[in-house]
Amino acid sequence: MASTINKSPENHSSRAVVMKTHKFYFVSQISLRCLAIFATLTATWIMLTTKQTTVVFGIQLDARYNYSSAFKFFAFANLIACVFSVLSLFLAFILSSKEVDPTYYFYTFLHDLIVLLLLMAGCAAATAVGYIGKYGNNYTGWMPICDHFAKFCHKIIFAALLSYFGILLYLILTIISANKSRQIQV
């Protein structure tokens, strides 16, 4: 009688649904992590190579990312997120073909949440300094610089947009991981 229960059509179809869900989970993990690697690596590369020299009132001035601690934090936050994305991508490849312990999903959730928060902090810092660079602050006497360093500012904006795209990708990854980690039996 036990052999007829295991061979029932309902048991076979439920196993097929579980396998299809498992495959969809890992395909989405791999594709979203690849996109996150591209976004964060490109944002890092743009930040590290962005510089501009211009003459203002007869004085030669430079604009570089490393002149601002917020831009340095932004560049290295993206670099760390990229490295962690590569490591988690390898782990996703390895575990996609195996039966996975359910606690893996919880650790993936924590990883994705930490990277999401790191990217958010870096983007917030870069956005704040970028806003002051574009519009200045009359109350403190900080003048806008983007009218003199337009190329530099446009590259910073593009890097920030790529990093915000990385935030969106990691938000989706965090939601997927949180949903899968709910399956842990306590």
TrEMBL record:
Subcellular location per the Swiss-Prot or TrEMBL entry: Cell membrane
Record's bilayer topology term: Multi-pass membrane protein
Any Gene Ontology CC annotation: plasma membrane
Chief localization: membrane
This protein's UniProt keywords: Cell membrane, Membrane, Transmembrane, Transmembrane helix
Residue ranges of the TM segments: 24-48, 73-95, 107-133, 156-176
Entry keyword annotation includes Cell cycle: no
Start and end residues of each Casparian strip membrane protein domain: 28-168
Entries under NCBIfam families matching the protein: A_tha_TIGR01569
Entry's family note: Belongs to the Casparian strip membrane proteins (CASP) family.
Subunit structure: Homodimer and heterodimers.
Protein name: CASP-like protein
Organism: Penstemon smallii
